[in-house]
Design a protein that fits this description.
By secondary structure, the chain is an all-alpha fold. Helix content is 77%, strand content 0%. It has helices spanning 6-18, 22-34, 36-64, 69-92, 107-115, 118-131, 139-148, 153-171, 175-194. Helix 3 (36-64) packs antiparallel against helix 7 and helix 3 (36-64) packs antiparallel against helix 8 (153-171). The longest helix is centred in the N-terminal third of the chain and has 29 residues, at 36-64. It is globular.
């Protein structure tokens, strides 16, 4: 990637990382419902999942390159279905504590959210295909960018998590309304993945 594209690449990473998506909303929701400690356990899983997806994107980009575009639509529908399931689960378990919620924040739930997060898959593939492949097909340069990507999205997840921890006491008496708003935001994420495909 030419040095002149570096600001555009960083802007792309920031915008994609900080905008609402499944991992950001899960980070916010976990911090609002359970506090900072359990949400940080989930965040570690989000980071690990992002790293795995990023390394998978490096491998796929190296092997498939332009052929990959055909499969993004299918991944979008699978991701949208999973996001809708998360919204339904959030509404169903609204008001319950950690003992009633099988999806309480944990490393495993964070890992599963990222491994099924189509936004992260598309983000990583697009970053590699748009900012690296047009200039080089070097595995080492793809790997260098792939190793950088996990420090973009998960940092944004951490921002959402800390915002949720800060707002936890303020919104505690309005848990049902917050859960409805979070579920609605997830539904919008799901629709945006497949509309107008």
């Amino acid at each position: 990637m030419p040095v002149s594209l570096f600001p555009a690449f960083l802007t792309y990473c920031y915008v994609c990382g900080i905008t609402p998506g499944p991992a950001n909303l899960c980070s916010l929701s976990a911090a609002l419902r359970y506090g900072k400690g359990p949400a940080l356990r989930q965040w570690r899983g989000l980071f690990a999942g992002f790293f795995i997806v990023s390394m998978g994107a490096v491998a796929v980009t190296c092997l498939l390159g332009a052929v990959l575009d055909r499969y993004v639509g299918v991944l979008s529908w699978i991701g949208a279905a999973y996001i809708l399931w998360m919204a339904w689960h959030m509404l169903r378990s609204s008001g319950g504590g950690a003992e009633r919620d099988p999806a309480a924040p944990s490393f495993r739930t964070g890992l599963l959210v990222q491994l099924t997060n189509v936004k992260v898959m598309v983000f990583c593939l697009t970053a590699l295909a748009s900012y690296v492949l047009p200039y080089t097909d070097s595995f080492w340069r793809l790997l260098a960018v792939g190793l950088f990507l996990p420090f973009t999205g998960p940092v944004a997840n951490l921002v959402w998590l800390l915002a949720g921890a800060s707002l936890q006491k303020l919104l505690d008496g309005h848990r049902r309304a917050v859960d409805i708003a979070m579920a609605a935001a997830l539904v919008l994420c799901a629709v945006s993945l497949v509309w107008p495909h």
